[in-house]
Specification:
By secondary structure, the protein is an alpha/beta fold. The protein folds into 2 domains: 168 residues, 3-Layer(aba) Sandwich (Rossmann fold); 62 residues, no CATH class. The chain contains 10 helices and 10 strands. It binds adenosine-5'-triphosphate. The site of adenosine-5'-triphosphate has 11 residues, from strand 2 and helix 1.
Amino acid sequence: MSQDAVIDVINVSKHFGGLAAVNNCSLSVRRGSVTGLIGPNGAGKSTLFNMVAGNIVPDEGQVIFDGQDVTGLAPHQLFRLGMLRTFQIAHEFSNMTALENLMMVPGDQPGESLANVWFRPFLARSRETAVRKKALDVIDFLKLGHVRNELAGNLSGGQKKLLELGRTMMVDAKVVLLDEVAAGVNKTLLNDLAANIERMNRELGYTFFVIEHDMDLIARLCDPVIVMAEGRKIAEGSMEEVRANPEIVEAYFGAPVEAA
Ligand SMILES: Nc1ncnc2c1ncn2[C@@H]1O[C@H](COP(=O)(O)OP(=O)(O)OP(=O)(O)O)[C@@H](O)[C@H]1O
């Protein structure tokens, strides 16, 4: 287990019937990094990611998050600990404004319960003020000020994706799991999203763990890149190192480097 890892996957396996989708796999995500996970179809990336995110319970092995064994915890429990998964489905509340959508994110706080609202109105109000300020800061950071009072249902696809990114900032996630960010997104929007992910990482110190089929996006955002094949990690390095290794290129791309 490395000292500066925020996620440590240790000897994890998952079988589906007789098939070892993930086979005694170990890997780490360094705090403050944007770590990519790539590999050929069927390599076990989604299964591994699902085990980290709490969607699938491993048959064997452990997932350590921020020093704590979280193996088998559900996604909502991981959310409370600061691990957020995003982009799998856009799930904004379309009848609420962009600002209100962000203000909905932090749960489990004083002021949320009916008792607090009735009997401790000051506490509820001061908390609402703090959440609103935070939401406005997030809106500013993502340059969504011009649509902050727009109903989320009326936002463009790109603005919805930015809002989704903003949700992770409302709870100061320790790590954000990014799931196929590029799927269904045009180049301009993707550029905008990527720039915001970079700013969140560089300016605010967010850690990202990224599963993505778009190699250009991986090359732009991720260092290191972890390569999986046949259920385990086969390599880790910068995208240049990965692309320069003929064995990895063969295992992953099944074709010369230029084709990647
Ligand atoms: N729920 C499931 N039931 C049975 N087999 C599964 C299940 N989920 C995944 N598999 C199998 O496990 C293996 C790993 O699949 P996984 O989806 O994790 O790979 P992947 O690297 O994410 O692939 P892709 O890049 O195509 O999404 C594959 O052979 C897949 O068919």
